[in-house]
Amino acid sequence: MLRVAKGASEEPGGRAPVRLFTVVGARPQFIKAAAVSRAIAEEAGISELLVHTGQHFDPDMSDVFFAELGIAEPAVHLGIHGGSHGEMTGRMLIALAATLAELKPQAVVVYGDTNSTLAGALAAAKLQIPVAHVEAGLRSFNRRMPEEINRVVADHASDLLFCPTSTAVANLAQEGITAGVHKVGDVMYDATLFAAGAARQRSTILEHLRLLPKRYGVATLHRAETTDDPRALAEAAAYLAAAGRERQIVLPLHPRTRDAAARAGVRFDDVEVIAPLGYLDMHRLLQDAALVLTDSGGLQKEAYFHRVPCVTLRAETEWMETVACGWNRLWRVADYAPRRDIDEYGDGKAAQRIVRCLVQRYGRAP
Q1: In a designed cystine with 136, which of 32, 161, 195, 303 is the match (CB 3.0 to 4.6 A)?
Q2: Catalytic annotation, residues
Q3: Is-contact 239 315, C-beta < 8 A?
Q4: In terms of DSSP bridges, do strands 76-77 and 3-4 run parallel, antiparallel, or are they unpaired?
Q5: Tell me, what's the pLDDT at 48?
Q6: Could you report the per-residue pLDDT of 167-206, keeping only the tens digit for each?
Q7: CB 240 within 8 A of CB 221
Q8: CB within 8 A of 179, min separation 6: which ones?
Q9: Whole-prediction pTM value?
Q10: What's the DSSP call for residue 336?
Q11: Is 292 helix (H, G, I), strand (E, B) or coil?
């Protein structure tokens, strides 16, 4: 169901700024979009309409992030969730196309690799509205992953491609995409710098869970390639259980994983299962963790930003520099590479670069 917040279409000061339509739907996108939204608020000549598809509809996975990230509630909420990948994406595509046709933005900004990303990119491209993809060029080279298909299609539909690393730029070049490509750094690093101090000051999650610094690990598990396959889910649960017999492992359980485990009869033994956490609580857990175990792309990087070793519960990763530099390893690999700092993620000003580029490309005189 479409819900448009009152006053969402008003333009300040009589100017004719760049009018963006930003599509988000899942936790990692809220975090990335918040960094860019803050940069938009500081830049003259640009305005934004934030659209939430509803992909993450649980309040613990959605509403709490807008409050903690200090950004306004989405102007448009489509309320679309549930169903198969195709069904969800199709419903989003229909709703987004109708909203775009009505509001007529100058560009659509999409983030990452979810069904919301794909639907936003396709809806805009069909209406010949330029698409800007933040976190473009990432590749796991595993087409069995829905996220990989979403990334590839979004990139090939995009007019501007904002890459976090040189590897992402090279991946696009191998696919013949060179126009509109910009290496800007990683907006997740921007977000981490914003959140780090607030997490230490405001979160009491360590005290609540009675955790001792550097004596526990943090785990997450939510990728469809794991949750949709009972055997893969059981394997991942067994891996976490083995880790839990060595140290305390805290697992904020994604609703999809919870439901899939119940259907498959999979138990998360020897780990401490808790409800999904807000952004600041999750950062606080990461700050003092001894280890991260995850199938999440974003959490692999957040672990590095906090200088916590990570084990990726997948056969491949789109963040190969974290593996090459010894901060991350795949779960079937016995040990880490020699550890060194990663210089690819920028200086925490990726969002400002993105906004300046958007203004330069789509800006109009007042």
Answers
A1: 161
A2: 222
A3: no
A4: antiparallel
A5: 94
A6: 999 999 999 999 999 999 999 999 999 989 999 999 999 9
A7: yes
A8: none
A9: 0.87
A10: P
A11: strand
